[in-house]
Design brief:
alpha+beta; Serum Albumin, Chain A, Domain 1; four-stranded antiparallel beta sheet; 22 helices
Amino acid sequence: MLSFGQQTQKPVLHGSNWMAITGKPMAATAGSMIFQQGGNAVDAACAMLAATCTMWDTLSWGGETQALIYNPKTKKVISINAMGVAPTGATAEFFKNKGYNFPPEYGPLAATTPGTPGGLIYMLIHYGTMSLEQVLAPSIQLAKGYAIEAQAANIMERYKSQISEWPYSKKVFLTHPGEKREAPEGGEIFKQLDLLQTLTRMVAAEKAALKQGKNRTDALMAAYDRFYKGDIAREFVRGCQEQGGLITMQDLVTWKPIEEQPLKINYKGIDVYKLKQWTQGPVMLQALNILENFDLKTMGYNTTKYIHTLYQAMNLAFADRDFYYGDPYMSPEEPIKGLLSKEYAKQRAGLIKYDKNDVSIGPGDPYAFEGKANPFLKLLKKRGYEMDTSKRNFAPKHDMGNNSSSEMYEDRLWRGTTSVEAADKEGWVVSITPSGGWLPACIAGNTGVGMSQRMQSFVLDSALNPFNVVAPGKRPRVTLSPSLALKDGKPYLASAVQGGDTQDQNLLQFFLNVTEFGMNVQQAAEAANINSNQ
């Protein structure tokens, strides 16, 4: 019997035809509407993604997305990379000359190219069944006006001084200018007429193409092209540059979503899939490889020995993440094979001691497990603890203002990112962790589209991470990290969560709660977790 017990605050939900889950009730309703109209899990996931983008406090249309998709026809898992890239002119020298030690957290200079619209349309083309008009219908309804949640409204009010610096954001978010409370109240009808126009223009492009006799794929691409190459793109670029941003038309035209083969390890007979090293996803795979060297079940759920082992394993994996992860499409090449090798994990597991916590844990040397010499040994020696970016992930000094560290931690933990999970009776399973463009977002001109803040995930000093130094056309190493697991070749678990660095720490414990300690998914989700920010 688990000490955790059998009672949960919420019941386990079961479905025989479909399941639609996200962090926003109205967005989950959008997914259920699509299922009821005959759509598959990809259609529903895209509708939920679009709806969450329209509700602001977790992300917007200018943000980034990615997905793990199980295709029951091929019985394979594929991944979608719709992460935006650093724009033209975004170099380490550019930011250093402006006095930055890191790229800015907010504003036009924090913006990467929008990824979510392209990623959504790509998924619809290749794995969905519906039109963009059908999938965007709930979002268009929201943009016309909905009763805004108190959480989003209060964030607008909290950040109104920052929002006031950006004229297009001020127009959208501060609906009562000059009053004591300038942001809308919770429950007030919140309208987004500029965004409504952007969404309807995309749908209009699709409908016009269909009227011309073009097929479904070409019609969806017409909507894509209007956003990335047409009048929407031109207004986005104008509004971005007017406010000091760097994104150009060429940046939008040349950006493309990428379909990838996800990374995979086997943990005690279960295949666990994560996105590539442009996310922090492999850190969970590394931690599982390390923990496979211990008898966790015998240790017992959340015993002191278990917690200590888990804590140390996470620290070892995250130390590697901080130095070795980056965009796999730009040099240098990350040593991902070495990082995910069982032999390397065994070596790292040998560093775990039970008489103390090692506060000086640093990156290992995975190159040896690829039969190569490590070209960055000098950088590893140079890289001191004081240069580590881990503390910056929740409370960078330039972003704290008058807030305490605990207030900043809580604020950053909840203010951006959500998860989207969908499954259907045919066997399609989708797991997404979309983010970017959360409040306070800088809106690009009259598009109603909030720009991403993902430049903040780059570094400017190669001693911090030689794989993640900002450069034009490069993807930042982000925390966004959905998960999919197969058992006996069939979908077993799909999971995702918000929370920056804590995402894969919480997902790791959720996975272990189910696989090692026999919890059902609701128990596993509600169980007490630990987090490390060492």
